[in-house]
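Lab notes, practical 5.
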Amino acid sequence: MLTGAGAQVVTLMDFEEVKARLLHQSFDAVIIDGKMPNGCNAPDVYRWIAENCSGLEKHLMFTFSGVVETETRAFLNNHNVPYLVNPSRWAT
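Output from the prediction step:
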């Protein structure tokens, strides 16, 4: 959908790749899975981006393919970080 709207999209599969790209390339926004492999979670990702890519945390959105834990939801709400939950993955 983003590519179709004319955006240049980079797809990466783990947060180590994400960190390497963010440190060496400029991005207008980041849309990222809130539950990355290797135990990386949304608050950890947010903190890393805020510390290493100042300002980009304001252009960050998380996606979740299931229920968002209460602590994670509270963190995102407290920091005004938008997120999307795909209910089709957990709805019965």
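Observations recorded by the TA: The mean pLDDT is 88. The CA atoms of residues 19 and 27 lie 12 Å apart.
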